[in-house]
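R.M. (postdoc): so does anyone remember the format we settled on? I'll just put the structure tokens first.
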């Protein structure tokens, strides 16, 4: 009986240890990071790293040969930098299983039309989307917790920006030089640094009904057809 009890105890303790450190035990890969410079390299990822759902190092994607990143869809967390830059034939970034990002920079992709992170819930060091000349849509509908800063600027065709679930931003929130016709953030209550909504020439309304605190500067302007501005709850600057 004593041996039986001792064995059960060991199994129980082992289960607790496994639950306590799942990211260290399952699914991690590439602690030194990886750079993708061709579509073939991206397409080979599921075969080369079949169990990898969490990339712990930096991921850089660049090159004229790259048209999509679909073969990275198994990744649920990018724990380093995710940088997608100067992919002149990239058409979309669609990573539906990614729930967490450390930091993302998506920039200077001439033909990029859509960015979708449908399951993304949090970032730990910001998200930058800039100078993508054909970008039409950014969809981050599940995002609620933003540590670091969010910048969306100089995406001159950007018409749809879905970040409506964001409740707080620890750093800057900047929306500048896009083609959106409105910015409605119904859940946003707090910005830890600066808030800037500027030079979005097609914007008619900026509605931030629950925003109560901005710890830095607030800059809203240079939008010639802006007719509705709701920041009535803002009490702390």
């Amino acid at each position: 009986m004593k041996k039986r009890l001792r064995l059960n105890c060991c199994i129980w303790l082992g289960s607790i240890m496994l639950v306590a450190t799942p990211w260290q035990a399952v699914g991690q890969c590439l602690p030194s990071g990886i750079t993708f410079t061709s579509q073939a390299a991206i397409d080979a990822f599921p075969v080369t790293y079949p169990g990898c759902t969490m990339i712990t190092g930096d991921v850089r994607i660049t090159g004229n040969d790259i048209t999509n990143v679909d073969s990275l869809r198994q990744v649920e967390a990018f724990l380093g930098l995710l940088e997608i830059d100067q992919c002149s034939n990239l058409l979309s970034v669609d990573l539906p299983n990614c729930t967490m990002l450390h930091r993302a920079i998506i920039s200077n992709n001439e033909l990029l039309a859509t960015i979708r992170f449908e399951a993304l819930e949090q970032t730990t060091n910001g998200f930058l989307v800039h100078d993508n000349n054909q970008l039409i849509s950014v969809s981050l509908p599940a995002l609620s917790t933003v540590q670091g800063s969010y910048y969306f600027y100089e995406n001159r065709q950007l018409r749809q920006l879905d970040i409506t679930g964001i409740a707080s931003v620890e750093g800057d929130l900047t929306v500048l030089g896009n083609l959106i016709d409105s910015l409605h953030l119904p859940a946003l209550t707090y910005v830890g640094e600066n808030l800037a909504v500027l030079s979005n020439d097609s914007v008619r309304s900026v509605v931030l009904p629950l925003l109560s605190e901005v710890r830095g500067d607030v800059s809203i302007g240079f939008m010639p057809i802006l007719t509705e501005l709701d920041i009535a709850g803002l009490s702390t600057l």
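R.M.: ...and that's the designed sequence above, right after the tokens. Also worth knowing: The helical segments are 2-20, 22-25, 39-43, 45-48. The radius of gyration is 21 Å.
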